[in-house]
Amino acid sequence: MAADVPTMLLMIITSSLMMAACMAVVGWARRSEGLGHWASALLLSALGHLLLLLRGRVPDALSIVAGNVLLASVVLCIIAALYRFQGRAVPWTGLLAMPVLVLVLVSLYRDS
Fold first, then answer.
1. CA-to-CA distance for 50 and 45, rounded, in angstroms?
2. What b/e string do you get for 18-53 counting C-beta neighbours within 10 Å, with b at 16 or more?
3. pLDDT digits over 22-64, tens only?
4. Around Cβ 3, how many Cβ atoms within 10 Å?
5. Residue whose C-alpha is closest to residue 6's, from 49, 44, 43
6. Euclidean distance between CA atoms 11 and 76, whole angstroms
7. Where is 53: in which H helix or E strand?
């Protein structure tokens, strides 16, 4: 039995949306623990994987470049959530460099 990539992407999207909804409900009153950042990461994951799923149906700039930038932003949000959970200030300047770097590199090497 061969794995079907679009089906796996749909499962990632569905589970990410369900977990984001659960975290949003659980973390509604606890804004300082980083659950909002974690729920945002899951939403970005769902959107990024959706764009990857749409490859060939939407322009490559959207499916490849924006999809990968969103998936890099997932890591950014998870790191921000960990900082918030530890009660530390989030170093946004350093963290925002990662998706910008992904944007530049994926844009340059999109056709290779």
1. 8
2. ebbeebbeebeeeeebbbbbbbbbbbbbbbbbbbbb
3. 988 887 776 667 888 899 999 999 999 999 999 999 998 899 9
4. 6
5. 49
6. 22
7. helix 35-53
